[in-house]
Amino acid sequence: MRALLVSLLLALHAVGPVAHAGYERGDKMKVSISDVRPTQFDVGMHEVRIRVSEIESLKNDKKALKELMKDYRAMVVVGPEERLYLVDGHHFSRTLHEAGIEEMYIRIERDWSDKKVPKFWEKMREKGWVYLRDQSGKTRTPSELPKRIAKMGDDPYRSLAWLVRKAKGYKNLDVPFQEFQWADFFRDRIPRSLLSDEAGFQEAIDQALKLARGADAAKLPGYLGLKAASSCNVTKLLLQLSR
Hints:
Shape: globular
CATH superfamily of the largest domain: Conserved hypothetical protein from pyrococcus furiosus pfu- 392566-001, ParB domain
Helix content: 40-55%
Number of domains: 2
Strand content: 5-15%
Radius of gyration: 21 Å
Oligomer: single chain
Order of helices and strands: HEEEHHEEHEHEHHHH
Protein backbone atom coordinates (compact mmCIF):
# COMPACT_ATOMS: atom_id res chain seq x y z
CA MET A 1 0.00 0.00 0.00
CA ARG A 2 2.81 2.39 0.92
CA ALA A 3 4.46 1.72 -2.44
CA LEU A 4 1.18 2.46 -4.24
CA LEU A 5 0.74 5.80 -2.44
CA VAL A 6 4.30 6.81 -3.28
CA SER A 7 3.70 5.92 -6.93
CA LEU A 8 0.53 8.03 -7.03
CA LEU A 9 2.27 11.03 -5.47
CA LEU A 10 5.12 10.79 -7.95
CA ALA A 11 2.66 10.59 -10.84
CA LEU A 12 0.85 13.73 -9.67
CA HIS A 13 4.14 15.57 -9.31
CA ALA A 14 5.16 14.55 -12.83
CA VAL A 15 2.08 16.04 -14.50
CA GLY A 16 2.17 19.28 -12.53
CA PRO A 17 -0.50 20.88 -10.35
CA VAL A 18 -3.99 19.47 -10.25
CA ALA A 19 -6.28 21.27 -12.71
CA HIS A 20 -8.66 23.91 -11.40
CA ALA A 21 -12.11 22.46 -10.80
CA GLY A 22 -13.62 25.20 -12.96
CA TYR A 23 -14.08 28.95 -13.03
CA GLU A 24 -17.37 30.77 -12.72
CA ARG A 25 -18.16 33.98 -14.52
CA GLY A 26 -17.63 36.80 -12.06
CA ASP A 27 -15.00 34.99 -9.99
CA LYS A 28 -12.53 37.48 -8.54
CA MET A 29 -8.94 36.77 -7.58
CA LYS A 30 -5.40 38.06 -7.39
CA VAL A 31 -2.83 36.60 -9.79
CA SER A 32 0.73 37.13 -10.93
CA ILE A 33 0.97 39.59 -13.83
CA SER A 34 3.39 37.22 -15.53
CA ASP A 35 0.63 34.57 -15.66
CA VAL A 36 -1.72 36.77 -17.69
CA ARG A 37 -1.45 36.83 -21.48
CA PRO A 38 -2.27 39.87 -23.63
CA THR A 39 -4.79 39.81 -26.45
CA GLN A 40 -3.17 42.73 -28.27
CA PHE A 41 0.34 43.43 -29.49
CA ASP A 42 0.97 46.92 -28.21
CA VAL A 43 0.17 49.61 -25.67
CA GLY A 44 0.69 53.37 -25.76
CA MET A 45 3.68 53.98 -23.52
CA HIS A 46 2.84 57.68 -23.10
CA GLU A 47 -0.22 56.61 -21.15
CA VAL A 48 1.72 53.94 -19.24
CA ARG A 49 4.47 56.34 -18.15
CA ILE A 50 1.96 58.88 -16.88
CA ARG A 51 0.03 56.26 -14.95
CA VAL A 52 3.21 54.82 -13.42
CA SER A 53 3.73 58.12 -11.60
CA GLU A 54 0.27 57.72 -10.04
CA ILE A 55 1.09 54.20 -8.85
CA GLU A 56 4.45 55.23 -7.43
CA SER A 57 2.84 58.07 -5.51
CA LEU A 58 0.71 55.47 -3.69
CA LYS A 59 3.40 52.95 -2.83
CA ASN A 60 3.56 54.21 0.76
CA ASP A 61 -0.20 54.03 1.11
CA LYS A 62 -0.93 50.33 0.70
CA LYS A 63 -4.64 50.68 1.38
CA ALA A 64 -5.12 53.35 -1.31
CA LEU A 65 -3.00 51.37 -3.77
CA LYS A 66 -5.02 48.22 -3.14
CA GLU A 67 -8.28 50.11 -3.65
CA LEU A 68 -7.00 51.57 -6.91
CA MET A 69 -5.89 48.15 -8.14
CA LYS A 70 -9.31 46.73 -7.33
CA ASP A 71 -11.03 49.64 -9.07
CA TYR A 72 -9.09 48.68 -12.20
CA ARG A 73 -9.71 44.96 -11.81
CA ALA A 74 -9.01 43.39 -15.21
CA MET A 75 -11.42 41.26 -17.23
CA VAL A 76 -9.97 37.87 -18.11
CA VAL A 77 -11.01 34.85 -20.19
CA VAL A 78 -9.76 31.39 -19.26
CA GLY A 79 -8.45 29.66 -22.37
CA PRO A 80 -7.02 26.26 -23.33
CA GLU A 81 -4.68 24.76 -20.72
CA GLU A 82 -6.35 27.18 -18.26
CA ARG A 83 -4.24 30.07 -19.47
CA LEU A 84 -5.52 33.50 -18.50
CA TYR A 85 -6.13 35.93 -21.36
CA LEU A 86 -6.56 39.62 -20.62
CA VAL A 87 -9.35 41.25 -22.60
CA ASP A 88 -9.54 44.55 -20.75
CA GLY A 89 -6.96 46.44 -18.73
CA HIS A 90 -3.77 46.03 -20.77
CA HIS A 91 -2.49 49.52 -20.00
CA PHE A 92 -3.10 49.31 -16.29
CA SER A 93 -1.51 45.87 -16.13
CA ARG A 94 1.57 47.16 -17.96
CA THR A 95 1.60 50.18 -15.64
CA LEU A 96 1.71 47.91 -12.59
CA HIS A 97 4.56 45.94 -14.15
CA GLU A 98 6.56 49.08 -14.95
CA ALA A 99 6.00 50.27 -11.37
CA GLY A 100 7.52 47.06 -10.03
CA ILE A 101 4.27 45.47 -8.85
CA GLU A 102 4.07 41.75 -9.55
CA GLU A 103 0.38 40.97 -8.94
CA MET A 104 -2.96 42.24 -10.19
CA TYR A 105 -6.66 41.76 -9.49
CA ILE A 106 -8.82 40.05 -12.12
CA ARG A 107 -12.41 39.04 -12.77
CA ILE A 108 -13.30 35.99 -14.85
CA GLU A 109 -15.54 36.92 -17.76
CA ARG A 110 -15.68 33.49 -19.43
CA ASP A 111 -14.23 30.04 -18.85
CA TRP A 112 -13.46 28.61 -22.28
CA SER A 113 -10.75 26.27 -21.06
CA ASP A 114 -12.65 23.35 -22.58
CA LYS A 115 -12.31 24.76 -26.12
CA LYS A 116 -9.72 23.63 -28.63
CA VAL A 117 -7.29 26.38 -29.61
CA PRO A 118 -8.89 27.24 -33.02
CA LYS A 119 -12.40 27.36 -31.50
CA PHE A 120 -11.18 29.46 -28.59
CA TRP A 121 -9.75 32.13 -30.89
CA GLU A 122 -12.85 31.98 -33.07
CA LYS A 123 -14.99 32.82 -30.04
CA MET A 124 -12.56 35.54 -28.96
CA ARG A 125 -12.87 37.15 -32.40
CA GLU A 126 -16.66 36.88 -32.31
CA LYS A 127 -16.76 38.78 -29.00
CA GLY A 128 -14.23 41.35 -30.16
CA TRP A 129 -11.86 40.33 -27.36
CA VAL A 130 -8.66 40.07 -29.41
CA TYR A 131 -6.97 42.76 -31.50
CA LEU A 132 -4.55 41.38 -34.06
CA ARG A 133 -3.16 44.52 -35.70
CA ASP A 134 0.31 45.56 -34.56
CA GLN A 135 1.92 49.00 -34.36
CA SER A 136 2.74 48.93 -38.08
CA GLY A 137 -0.90 48.27 -38.94
CA LYS A 138 -0.14 44.70 -40.01
CA THR A 139 -2.65 41.98 -39.13
CA ARG A 140 -1.00 39.09 -37.31
CA THR A 141 -2.13 35.70 -35.95
CA PRO A 142 -3.07 34.76 -32.36
CA SER A 143 0.00 32.53 -32.12
CA GLU A 144 2.17 35.64 -32.60
CA LEU A 145 0.68 37.53 -29.66
CA PRO A 146 3.11 38.34 -26.83
CA LYS A 147 3.13 35.73 -24.07
CA ARG A 148 3.66 38.30 -21.33
CA ILE A 149 2.32 41.77 -20.50
CA ALA A 150 5.93 42.96 -20.32
CA LYS A 151 6.53 41.95 -23.94
CA MET A 152 3.92 44.21 -25.53
CA GLY A 153 5.35 46.84 -27.86
CA ASP A 154 4.84 50.61 -27.95
CA ASP A 155 2.36 52.00 -30.47
CA PRO A 156 2.64 55.83 -30.58
CA TYR A 157 -0.67 56.05 -32.45
CA ARG A 158 -2.35 54.38 -29.49
CA SER A 159 -0.89 57.15 -27.30
CA LEU A 160 -2.18 59.72 -29.77
CA ALA A 161 -5.67 58.20 -29.70
CA TRP A 162 -5.62 58.28 -25.88
CA LEU A 163 -4.59 61.95 -25.82
CA VAL A 164 -7.27 62.84 -28.36
CA ARG A 165 -9.88 61.17 -26.15
CA LYS A 166 -8.58 62.98 -23.07
CA ALA A 167 -8.80 66.23 -25.05
CA LYS A 168 -12.49 65.39 -25.73
CA GLY A 169 -11.95 64.60 -29.37
CA TYR A 170 -14.32 61.66 -29.04
CA LYS A 171 -16.45 60.08 -26.32
CA ASN A 172 -15.18 57.25 -24.17
CA LEU A 173 -17.38 54.17 -24.61
CA ASP A 174 -17.31 50.70 -23.09
CA VAL A 175 -16.24 49.20 -26.42
CA PRO A 176 -13.36 46.70 -26.66
CA PHE A 177 -10.26 48.23 -28.27
CA GLN A 178 -12.02 51.53 -28.95
CA GLU A 179 -8.79 53.52 -28.84
CA PHE A 180 -7.05 51.09 -31.20
CA GLN A 181 -9.77 51.73 -33.77
CA TRP A 182 -9.04 55.44 -33.51
CA ALA A 183 -5.29 54.73 -33.54
CA ASP A 184 -5.61 52.86 -36.84
CA PHE A 185 -7.69 55.71 -38.25
CA PHE A 186 -4.95 58.20 -37.38
CA ARG A 187 -2.19 55.81 -38.50
CA ASP A 188 -3.38 56.02 -42.10
CA ARG A 189 -3.54 59.84 -42.06
CA ILE A 190 -0.85 61.29 -39.79
CA PRO A 191 2.92 60.80 -40.40
CA ARG A 192 4.66 58.68 -37.77
CA SER A 193 7.58 61.14 -37.81
CA LEU A 194 5.41 63.60 -35.85
CA LEU A 195 5.15 61.22 -32.91
CA SER A 196 8.78 61.20 -31.82
CA ASP A 197 8.73 64.25 -29.49
CA GLU A 198 6.36 66.64 -27.71
CA ALA A 199 6.55 69.31 -30.42
CA GLY A 200 5.60 66.75 -33.02
CA PHE A 201 2.81 65.45 -30.81
CA GLN A 202 1.34 68.95 -30.69
CA GLU A 203 1.11 69.05 -34.47
CA ALA A 204 -0.16 65.47 -34.55
CA ILE A 205 -2.92 66.14 -32.03
CA ASP A 206 -3.96 69.28 -33.93
CA GLN A 207 -4.33 67.17 -37.07
CA ALA A 208 -6.02 64.35 -35.15
CA LEU A 209 -8.63 66.63 -33.59
CA LYS A 210 -9.48 68.02 -37.00
CA LEU A 211 -9.78 64.49 -38.40
CA ALA A 212 -11.90 63.37 -35.41
CA ARG A 213 -14.49 66.05 -36.24
CA GLY A 214 -14.67 65.06 -39.91
CA ALA A 215 -17.10 62.81 -41.74
CA ASP A 216 -14.46 60.13 -42.38
CA ALA A 217 -14.46 59.34 -38.65
CA ALA A 218 -18.25 59.09 -38.36
CA LYS A 219 -18.32 55.27 -38.05
CA LEU A 220 -15.77 55.13 -35.26
CA PRO A 221 -17.03 54.44 -31.70
CA GLY A 222 -17.47 57.62 -29.69
CA TYR A 223 -17.60 59.96 -32.69
CA LEU A 224 -18.79 63.43 -31.67
CA GLY A 225 -18.58 65.30 -34.95
CA LEU A 226 -18.56 69.07 -34.55
CA LYS A 227 -19.22 68.67 -30.82
CA ALA A 228 -15.67 67.37 -30.40
CA ALA A 229 -12.86 69.64 -29.22
CA SER A 230 -11.11 71.50 -31.99
CA SER A 231 -7.85 72.32 -30.20
CA CYS A 232 -5.66 71.23 -27.30
CA ASN A 233 -2.38 72.27 -25.71
CA VAL A 234 -0.44 69.00 -25.33
CA THR A 235 1.92 70.34 -22.67
CA LYS A 236 -0.96 71.47 -20.45
CA LEU A 237 -2.85 68.25 -21.07
CA LEU A 238 0.13 66.10 -20.09
CA LEU A 239 0.67 68.14 -16.94
CA GLN A 240 -3.00 67.77 -16.05
CA LEU A 241 -2.90 64.00 -16.60
CA SER A 242 0.28 63.67 -14.52
CA ARG A 243 -1.33 65.15 -11.39
